[in-house]
Amino acid sequence: MLNKEEIETIIPQRDPFLMIDKVEKYIPGESAVAYKYVNIDEWYFKGHFPNNPIMPGVLIAESLAQTGAVAILSQEENKGKNALFGGIDKMKFKKMVTPGDTLKLEVKIIKRKGPIGIGEAVATVDGKIAAKGELTFALV
Questions:
Q1: Any idea what the CATH number is for the domain that residue 14 is in?
Q2: Minimal CA–CA distance to 65: which of 29, 119, 23?
Q3: 48 catalytically annotated
């Protein structure tokens, strides 16, 4: 289990843009499972949407990407590097994520060729799929 401070030793994101609160487990270069505790005080709820707060889909995708970054950047040969978005494919948003939800984020690295790779990403709330798709990353 990794807390926020330990996550920050692996990936470069920082508050307010660190989008994962803890990592339950990870296998360097292969997979990671993390959690985001969605709180009404999140900066984006002020405008998305007033009186009907919904976590933006792009931030769910970012949370998944950061989870995948833990898997990739925890490999010894990738320490100190960054994983940038190369693409988002087949991403579907199936459930609204609202304050009070715990977002479970699971990413499995399914393909690697040099500095480019693809992660299969799934975000769930209470066992129900909130978002699912593939994330392409580039190590720099």
A1: 3.10.129.10
A2: 119
A3: yes
